[in-house]
Write a structure and sequence with these properties.
The protein has four domains: about 130 residues, Rossmann fold (3-Layer(aba) Sandwich), CATH 3.40.50.2300; about 160 residues, Rossmann fold (3-Layer(aba) Sandwich), CATH 3.40.50.300; about 80 residues, Helicase, Ruva Protein, domain 3 (Orthogonal Bundle), CATH 1.10.8; about 45 residues. Helix 7 packs across helix 8. A hairpin with a 2-residue loop joins strand 4 and strand 5. With about 450 residues, the chain is α/β, with parallel strands linked by helices.
Amino acid sequence: MTTKERRQHYRLLVVEDEQVIRDSLAEFLSSEGFPVETADSAGEAVRLVRENSFAAAICDVQLPDGDGIALMRRIQQLSPRTAVLIITAYATVENAVAAFKSGAYDYLVKPVIFEDLLMKLERLFEFRELHLENQALRRELQRAEGFPAIIGSSKAITELQRLIHKFAVTNSNLLLVGESGTGKELVARSVHAAGPNREERFLAINCATRPVELLEAQLFGGRTSLVNAAVEEPGLFRTAGRGTVFLDEIAELPLSTQAKLLRAIEYQEVMPLGTSEPVEVQARIIASTARDLLREVAEGRFLEDLFYRLDGVKIRVPPLRERLDDIPELVEAFIEKHSRQMRKRVSGATSETMRLLMSAHWKGNVRQLDNAIERAVMMCEGSMITPKDLPPELLGINQPLPDTDDLRSALRHYEKLHITRVLRQWPDKREAAKRLRLGLSSLYRKIEELGIDTG
């Protein structure tokens, strides 16, 4: 692939209110092989970023309807993967520091030297290609070694990774808290893989397993008539050795089983079913829950002593809404995974699809996103996932109307669904009102009347 062919994959946005500078920059960059869009104001730039996917934006710091620093922050909100280069007519240390602190990739001074700009862009895209290659290699290595990969580079995930490595080396018991679908088992496997006994076994069980006798046999061992009374079940704690036992959704354990687990933690021994002799165990315990355990204690559904035994070392796994910057990377990884499993040549998602994915409400968190991409890969007829490949319910469309014959109620229900979908796609209410062909005050009135959640 030639240099110009490679540059065709990097769409650029030039934001400059001076037409001569704007046109000359666009002409030069186009001649070098980059697809280029131009804007003469911050408002026009925001519109273009909403409608297109840009690898980089080159923004003047002085614009007729705002400043380039504020625009850069808005671009980063709408498109986290778009790098921003700031242009200014006044080169000062203070300006440079302000730009870099706000997240600028680089800093240019007027008059812009074309060769300098080209060098900075080449360095940016070389770094990006290397970063993507490293991510792919890391995933392949982790997959080959059986090491779990926590995908993402957001602040929330960076902090999570820090805590994992901090607590993993202690080999202490650990509690993971977080909403359903956030990947608590993946975090537990990461803790085990980074710990001192990583060569030992990692065994997981869902604490909602019923009946209780079967659950306790699986945990502590012994004989049970529910399986085969003649065969003694060794139990996870003994089988794990010095490894890890992961207790998924520990709040589901019956109180009687909680008492036996408490003894395993306090005395490092379990009593297999049907026996009177305790057995020593050494496994590390990692428990997870989506419930508020303190409330469970207050309402008598969870043992207070067990709560304090588990709550000392705790990691909160963030929901997807707190790490939206990770969605593009997650989508890439899920497309790669499901394309390989289905033997399809799906290489990515269109910019419109990615905007819809980043504006959706992920109540089921990463698990829901994974399922959505699996369905999209299955439905995709080309090499890129488009909005029509996504689950219809993702943006609140194709939902049934209320069970009523009253036309006014049905229209009100549909109106709420439609406005909710537009607001998810266009969070800026001025833009949403424009798309809905409503006045801004009318949109606010509709939101209040229909009880629309804009959080």
